[in-house]
Automatic annotation (TrEMBL):
InterPro entries: Amidohydro-rel (IPR006680), Metal_Hydrolase (IPR032466), Peptidase_S8_Asp-AS (IPR023827). The keyword Hydrolase applies. Belongs to the peptidase S8 family. Pfam families: Amidohydro_2. Signal peptide: none annotated. This is Amidohydrolase family protein. Keywords: Hydrolase. Residues 182-367 form the Amidohydrolase-related domain. PANTHER family: AMIDOHYDROLASE 2 FAMILY PROTEIN, NODULIN 6.
Amino acid sequence: MIDPPSLVDQYCHGVLRTELGLGTFEAQLARTEGPPAPGTTLFDTQTGFAVRRWCPPLLGLEPHCPPARYLARRRELGTVEAGRRLLRGSGITAYLVDTGLPDDLTDPDELARAGQAEAHEIVRLEQLAEQVADTSGTVESFLANLAESVHGAAAHAVAFTSVAGLRHGLALAPEPPEAGEVRGAAGRWLAARVAGDRLTDPVLLRHLLWIAVASGLPLQLHAGLGAPGARVDRTDPVLLTDFVRATAGLGTDLVLLHGYPYHRHAAHLAGVFPHVYADCGAALVRTGARAATVLAEVLELAPFGKILFSSGARGLPELHVVGAHLFREALARVLGGWVSEGAWSLDDARRVATMIASGNAARVYGLS
């Protein structure tokens, strides 16, 4: 039996506090730019089928029950109770939570209480910069306050995360921008900015990344398929190679998130550079019944001490459940197959499973 005793979800978000109908549930189930096409449902996806497989038993229903019945049971229990049952049934023992989304999501402490687990904060750099811009009147005060805010966040967070790849693309110049460049870009952004506008300027995005690198905390970089509208050809992690090379030896680990469909590229970078790690979790949620194939492809290229589990869940506690169960099942199928073929010993399979499930994250993020 290959079943790691604990799971550290090294990248996720909180869950929604509101009651959900069919339409709002489906909107959270799959990231699309609108509702499903007429006559179709987003439950008819790999993620939707995985939800119907793993979540109904946690709410007292049979696996694969119809979506309408499942959502009726969810409403009967109420958002809080359903969320509590789902999160506690996931087997996740620690959550690392990106708090940088505008949605009404539970914070790390709430997620920890609901799931009877530990929780730690990941600070999103772009949101931090936008908050600083809202309270800074001049370029000089903005830049000074930004550096101070990143330094302050590093005192309580376990990592920084950046969505520069989703907002601009990963083909950013690798070196830190010159001070004059940064002042000029900050001046243009502040002068044209309306409160709430997102940061997309490539110079300021690079400046943020390098401030984070200087902090020494692990830096998570979003790659692969992202939010609706993101250009997937601009988020291939191989585009990060120059930045990865420039940050080598500086003492800051880089974690490549959501590399799918370029998960092999992310795994390759993790294999080549000592300070690079590859996240395998969100790809498994997206691929559902094909998760074992994707995990095996990551294991082909990345050293086993450089691979991290995450659910990538956002909004729905069901996605935490699906991420955890698909990961455990894929791990058992892949490693168990190698054991049965005689390629691996059972002891080695269990040791590697524990590394990927929790041990690597504990080491990278300094968790107890």
